[in-house]
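re: that chain from earlier
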Amino acid sequence: MKTQEILTQLRFARNLPEGLFVFLEITANLVEAKRPLEELNSASAVRSEVAQILEGVGRALLGTPRQERYRTLSELMDAAADHHGDGWVRPEASKKIVEMIGDAASVRFSYPWSMRPCLDYTMASDLSNRPPEINFVTPNAEQARILGNILSILDLGGAVTIETGWGWDRREVSSAAVEVMFPPFGMTVKDDDTIPERTLATLGLERGKIGRMLSETLAIADATAMTLGRVILLTTTGAMFRMVGSETVARDNLMRSDRLQAIMGMPSGMMFTATAIPTLLVTLSTTVAKRDTVRFVDLGHDLVSSKGRRGRFEILPEAAWLDLASGAKVEDRALARDVSIEEIRENNLVLTPNRYLSTGARERIDTLLEKHDVAPLEDLVEFIRPLSISNDEDGELTLLEAMPADIGPDGFIGKPKRAVRVSPAKYNKARNQRLIPGDVLIAVKGTIGSVALVPEGIPAENAETIWTAGQSMMILRAARRGGIAALALYEYLSDPTVQEHIQSLAGGAVIQSIGMKDLKALPIPLPDPDTLTELRRGFQRRQDILAQIEDLQKQLEDDRDACWPHRELRPTE
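^ sequence. v structure.
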């Protein structure tokens, strides 16, 4: 039966997800209880004639071979996810997850987003006549019913044990050979009654005093403390980057477990149909021996993926995620690299692939640094982090906040477009972040690494309007003694190779940011007087060229305006 025919019938429901829910329950009822339509709770959500139509469609679906039934149901779930924006795993990604699970004797799938891999694995096991023990755990009772109905429609009603609850809510260490954990992203966990004492203890926390605990961090702790088998865990880059609360403790425990096998970075759109968040696939092995390295992989590399329509990354069929995670030999170090535990600890336990796979940029920088005296950035400049200052409708004074968008092609920050009216009290507070000529600005949030010089001729200290920096920017002000020329610092930080390296230090689930510790430790080469003179002359030559380009652009516009039809269409002054 064609999927589009069913979708046409589901349009009679209030929305597609609700219509699909009703259709699944009506169809499953034909297999099991065979109760009258009017006794089904979900059928009351649609008109009786619509329910009867859906029952007829369900009978037709049940008359098709099981493989065709599953293909149809998968396509219906895809359509519902596209409509509703749920975290439904894309089919190509789910197939790779199933390959990674392999011929396990028992598998536990936890959290809503693991439902598709659970279904795919159940079907694959049935087709190969393997009867593994499969468990699915979800906090969503409605999802549990949906999965149960789908399994009934596929004649697999007893193949999966379905539990309602959080994946981390267990009272003993898991005996599953493989755990597939796809926790929700960015969810604050408030009810610590669901967290086992063993998990809390590994984080150094007490019940009732867990502070701000995010779901990804708790899932990492659960995987480390409450499992013995292999683990396939999905998380955000932020959970492997942030230095807040229990997050670093969870990562340290992960490293000390000697089970952390691989961390594979996936670009946005590769795993889910309706989320633009880049994700990480983390694999843990059973404890065999002490590990000296962790494998980092870029699944967005052109050897294993390609850009599809709308710029979304598509998984190449031949991409072997299992081999990449298991340590198969890889020649291209931008695709995969085995990183020593020592190097990871030197990087403050940051566990994001871009930190370790940008090897070409780091090697070119190291070659340059060998030729110069070098100092960490914190020894050369004062860091001034702007505070958020709100607008006062009756404010008498004005702050112009510089943003990355205000950087001109000449490298200087232009007149900021964002104006904030403030009272004298807030104006005085903003004095600490007032821009002065010679400052260097660098974006530390959002468009990481964008850098600019502050020009001469901007408003003086006590002017009614002053320039300040927005919160996404950091002000780098040369130290009074032993600093570095602002132009030299700008030229170095704005170089494409250095930009690539700086961006590799960033992390974050939705909005990228760079940690202060990384920024302060950034090694800076110190040019000698002759090199500095050459640098200044080159910079001025480029400014002269830009002025010529601007003049030519004006000539081009004037010439165009003098021709038909532009001459006749110009507005009169």
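The mean pLDDT is 90.
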